[in-house]
């Protein structure tokens, strides 16, 4: 009787957010007591009965607590975000923090720099829950800005909705994409040179294949190996299609054309007249290495950001949206550890979204290859070493385990052991998903060590 009584007491001291029942979905040997200090930050959203939709943002209230201390308590505007992920029952959201008059308000959330635009990313097909977190942290460690991010629990209208990642929305800001703000009246001289943000991505709107001279720049160069007449488009992000002036359109369009002309020319390796006159080469190298490390099946062709600051060269990045990376896609060799991501067009020449010719051409330049090799060796001795990456994975999974997040998330969304598009691997437990990710990364690193050396 004493044993039974002790068990009941243990269950009662667990925070009410978590269940004492043992889940059949998540592999677990014994009941876990969740200590308050181990809980993830709690993001509680109240929509006052309204349904969150994909545009427009609806008014709501949000409270964020960390270890029962209030981090934020105020108004927000919230909407569903994402493209293919919108088909998942676990939705991801974009939201703006607002003041009492429902006007945008810059605030600091979870210790991040103040801003108004935020994202609640919802890992669903990524059953490790950590792929985006991992690559963003690695990017910042090697000196390239990526969205700051932290795991949180999300509760909507008093109903638990799973483990999310609260992250910064990519935008021009001193603490995010730190470039000059290009104003509408800046249409000549050096003012016209930046800053611009472009994207290689799906078009906005219900038909994401529609590109026009209003929303984008169309490359004059066809992608290598494309078999269906595909084109490459550079979407206007900042200034966006509604704000950019004709002079600014002309400038950035001509800049992209000049870069591509130089890269495709016979003198493309010339340091003064070739491609390096137009791009910050090191940013291209770092982007390449992060994309190849993860074999991101969307890499180079979707969710790809380009930045042109005032009086500066074109830069690649920041990186974005790696939920299908690290072996989590079952098409176009997205699950393979022994293929080049930049060779996507060879494998899937009919896909609508192809990769620009840039990367094949850059790798024809001995100087680019030499710099790439040196950078790989440098990073493999530090941030991209096996031990450094595995230490990060262990840290994430320990945080999620101690918080009860793994168990609760998969009780809410019982997808372990089930195929969720586009899984390349389906583990029957979280431990199997984690081990697959680790083994995949180790195999990938071994392959890249050999292949980069032989470039």
From TrEMBL:
Keyword line: Kinase, Transferase
Claim: Kinase is one of the keywords in the record: yes
PROSITE patterns, per database record: PROKAR_LIPOPROTEIN
Record has Ion transport as a keyword: no
Pfam families with a match to the protein in the record: CotH
Annotated GO MF terms: kinase activity
Superkingdom as given in the UniProt entry: Bacteria
PANTHER family: INNER SPORE COAT PROTEIN H
Full protein name: CotH kinase family protein
Species, as recorded: Winogradskyella vincentii
């Amino acid at each position: 009787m004493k044993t039974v009584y002790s068990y009941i007491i243990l269950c009662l001291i667990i925070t009410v957010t978590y269940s004492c029942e043992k889940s059949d979905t998540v592999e677990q040997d014994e009941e876990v007591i969740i200590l308050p200090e181990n809980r993830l930050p709690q993001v509680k959203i109240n929509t006052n009965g309204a349904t969150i939709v994909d545009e427009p943002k609806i008014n709501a209230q949000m409270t964020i607590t960390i270890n029962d201390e209030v981090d934020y308590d105020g108004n927000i505007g919230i909407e569903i975000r994402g493209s293919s992920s919108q088909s998942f029952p676990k939705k991801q959201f974009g939201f703006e923090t607002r003041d009492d008059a429902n006007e945008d308000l810059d605030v600091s959330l979870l210790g991040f720099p103040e801003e108004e635009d935020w994202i609640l990313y919802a890992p669903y097909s990524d059953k490790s829950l950590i792929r985006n977190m991992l690559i963003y942290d690695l990017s910042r460690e090697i000196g390239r800005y990526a969205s700051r991010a932290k795991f949180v629990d999300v509760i909507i209208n008093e109903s638990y909705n799973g483990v999310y990642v609260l992250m910064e929305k990519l935008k021009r800001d001193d603490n995010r994409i730190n470039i000059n703000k290009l104003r509408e009246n800046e249409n000549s001289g050096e003012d016209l040179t930046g800053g611009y943000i472009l994207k290689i991505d799906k078009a906005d709107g219900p038909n994401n294949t529609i590109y026009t001279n209003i929303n984008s720049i169309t490359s004059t160069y066809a992608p290598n190996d494309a078999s269906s007449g595909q084109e490459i488009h550079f979407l206007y992000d900042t200034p966006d299609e509604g704000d950019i002036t004709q002079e600014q359109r002309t400038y950035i369009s001509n800049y992209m054309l000049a870069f591509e002309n130089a890269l495709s020319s016979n003198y493309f390796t010339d340091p003064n007249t070739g491609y390096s006159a137009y791009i910050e080469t090191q940013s291209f190298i770092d982007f390449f290495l992060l994309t190849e490390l993860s074999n991101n099946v969307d890499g180079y062709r979707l969710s790809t950001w380009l930045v042109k600051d005032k009086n500066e060269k074109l830069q690649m990045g920041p990186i974005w949206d790696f939920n299908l990376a690290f072996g989590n896609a079952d098409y176009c060799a997205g699950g393979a550890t022994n293929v080049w991501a930049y060779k996507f067009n060879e494998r899937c020449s009919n896909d609508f979204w192809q990769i620009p010719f840039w990367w094949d051409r850059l790798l024809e330049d001995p100087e680019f290859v030499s710099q790439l090799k040196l950078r790989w060796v440098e990073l493999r001795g530090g941030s991209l070493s096996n031990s450094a990456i595995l230490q990060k994975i262990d840290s994430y999974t320990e945080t999620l385990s101690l918080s009860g997040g793994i168990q609760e998330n998969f009780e809410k969304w019982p997808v372990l052991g089930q195929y969720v598009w586009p899984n390349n691997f389906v583990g029957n437990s979280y431990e199997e998903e984690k081990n697959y990710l680790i083994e995949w990364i180790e195999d990938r690193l071994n392959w890249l060590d050999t292949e980069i050396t032989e470039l």
